[in-house]
Structures are given as C-alpha cells and as structure tokens.
Amino acid sequence: MLNPLAAGSRLVRRTIAFQAVAVAALSLALLAKGPAWSLAALAGGGAIAAGGALYGVLALGGGIAPAIGALARLVLGLLAKWLVVIATLFIAIAVARLPALAVMGGAVVALVAQVLAMASGHRNGNP
Predict the structure, then answer these.
(1) How far apart are CA 57 and CA 51, in angstroms?
(2) What are the tens digits of pLDDT across the range 7-59?
(3) CA angle, 107 as apex, 89 and 79 as ends, to 5°?
(4) Cα–Cα nearest to 53, from 90, 13, 22
(5) Are 4 and 63 spatial neighbours (Cβ–Cβ below 8 Å)?
(6) What 8-state DSSP symbol labels residue 91?
(7) What digits encode the pLDDT tens for the residues 56-108?
(8) How far is CA 95 from CA 16, 81, 82, 85, in A?
(9) Given CA atoms 96, 99, 100, 103 in this order, what sign does their dihedral have?
(10) How far is CA 43 from CA 10, 78, 93, 106, in A?
C-alpha cells in the first residue's frame, strides 16, 4: 500500500543527505581558499538544508488532515523555510561578514543537490 506521508518523509531525508554530502564536498574544496570560505559554503548550504528540513517537519508532520489543514501546513512550512533561509544568508553575509560568493555557492550547490535527490527517487516509480 502506498503511504504518501511516509514517501514524503523518505524524500525529505534523502534530500537532506544529498545536500549534506554536496555541501561538505564544496566546503572541503573551498578549504584551500581559506577557512572563512569553507565556513561560508557550509552556512549557505546549511541554510537551504535546515530550511528544507523545517519544511518537511511542518508540511508533513500533521498526518492526514482535511484539505484546508493540509494546505495551511504546506504554506506555513514554505514560509518558515524561506524565513530561515533568508535570515541565515543575511546573518552569514551581513553580520558574520563571510565571503558572499561562497555563501551563495553553498546555497546553489544545496539547491542543485535537492533537485538531483528528488529526481533520483523517481526511477522505476519509487518515491
């Protein structure tokens, strides 16, 4: 039997794992440029991964609900995700003065990893 909530939770876990590996690889590569660059990549990628994890918890954590409740959880999760992402990126760039290019690079790598993780699960119809 197909359980869409369980499939969604598996997709969130797989996405976070892909993002963690990709951002860690970028961070290790940028360590040659300096520790601030490496930390900046971790901050950018971590912002995307943390926002995605929060979205997964809020959007999928309520179980089966009527359409209004499910839509409200999706919207709340999406708003919370982007609030966390924007706040983290702002803190990393404006407050901590980390290299902006590395912060944005980490975010882009995490977003690309997100797309690849979502696409990889649909081979042979497996979510």
Answers:
(1) 10
(2) 778 888 999 999 999 999 999 999 999 999 999 999 999 999 999 999 999 98
(3) 60
(4) 13
(5) no
(6) I
(7) 999 888 777 888 988 999 999 999 999 999 999 999 999 999 999 999 999 99
(8) 26, 20, 18, 15
(9) negative
(10) 24, 20, 9, 7
Q: Specify whether the CB–CB gap between 53 and 81 falls below 8 A.
A: no
Q: pTM of the full predicted structure?
A: 0.89
DSSP-assigned letter for residue 64: S
- Phi, psi (degrees; rounded to nearest 5) at 123: -70, 135
Burial bucket for residue 16 (CB in 10 Å: 0-12, 13-18, 19+): buried
66: phi > 0 → left, psi -120 to 50 → alpha, else beta; which? beta
